[in-house]
Design brief:
The chain has 367 residues and is mostly helical. It has helices at 2-9, 12-22, 27-56, 58-82, 86-111, 119-143, 151-182, 195-226, 231-243, 245-256, 260-285, 298-314, 322-342, 354-366; strands spanning 115-116, 319-320. The protein has one domain (58-183, 220-344, 360-366): Up-down Bundle (A middle domain of Talin 1). Helix 4 (58-82) packs parallel to helix 8, helix 6 (119-143) packs antiparallel against helix 12 (298-314) and helix 8 packs antiparallel against helix 9.
Length: 367
Amino acid sequence: MVRRVLFVGLLLGPLTIVLHYATDLGATAEFVLAAAALIPLAWLIGEATEHAAERTGPGIGGFLNATFGNAPELIIALIAVNDGLTEVVRGSLTGSVVGNLLLVLGFSLFLARRDALDRLSSFLSFAAIAVAILLFLIPAIPSWHGDPNRHEIVVLSVPVSIVLLVVYGVVTLYSLRRHRELHVATDEAVDAWTLNRSLLVLGATTVVTALVAEILVGSLEEFAHKVGLSEFFVSAVIVAIVGNAAEHGGAVIVARRGKVKLAAEIALSSAAQVAVFLIPAVVLLSWLIDPLSLGFRPVEIFALAGGLAVTVVALWGGRASPARGAVLLVAYAVIVVAFYVAGDRTDHPEGASANARGSLVSGYVAT
């Protein structure tokens, strides 16, 4: 019954897109409709990933889900950069890493039975995230005083982003090679989709998800203001959860089906991919639009470091259990409260000066 409802619910995606461009629904109606449309889309991404994993193994399956699931976040981030919403971009990306580590992984472990995890794969993701956090400190600390988008912070963010992309390439190549050697393809799973079909469904669903997510984010700001939430809280919690809808749905679905190893791979791969690929990619691509700095706030750095530390401790033994999942969920709730209390920056209001941001490019060229 639930499966049928979700299958019919896939019509909400195209319907949301058509209504957005053909009518004037208003921010509240668009927000609710787009949020509802993301649920069955996330389910379908989870289905396709699970079928792909039958052919490739959980490691590569988790990588595929992270890759396709993070595509909407990249699009959302670049749209926000184009609109000059730099704090929204940084907040949503920080919230995405923390959300995958604590919320997605926490729910997956909480709903799954006790089982062993791929300890080496988990700690590869942890190491990548730890390296990212340390490198983020290079531009972040100077940005805590003055304009976080000023010229020197933006320029300092470029080499940091390049190093992170190199780290991503090395870790990804090693991880994929290792999982390919561990997994031996068989024809036993006769009910599984072919790999080509799984990838086709993943690609098509990701495109629709990105369009629906764009509509939701476009209506999110006005909707959030009506309930009195800060821009930072909206970006770090609500936008991050929306952008991670695919990972949330995919990981929880496969965890409920007893495939906790795949669920953990989805959450951890996505968190690592955001930290060492998506964030630096957004920074470098932003030079084509409006240069973005890695001027993360102290609360964001502490949230990243704290979320990573809790997850490492919880999974140190390489075992999954509902109790460990509950610990991660509690930690996420604490960080959400911290984001709420932190509010918006007071020393540099969002959108302070479009001209000042625009001058970054000319200033960089002059150097």
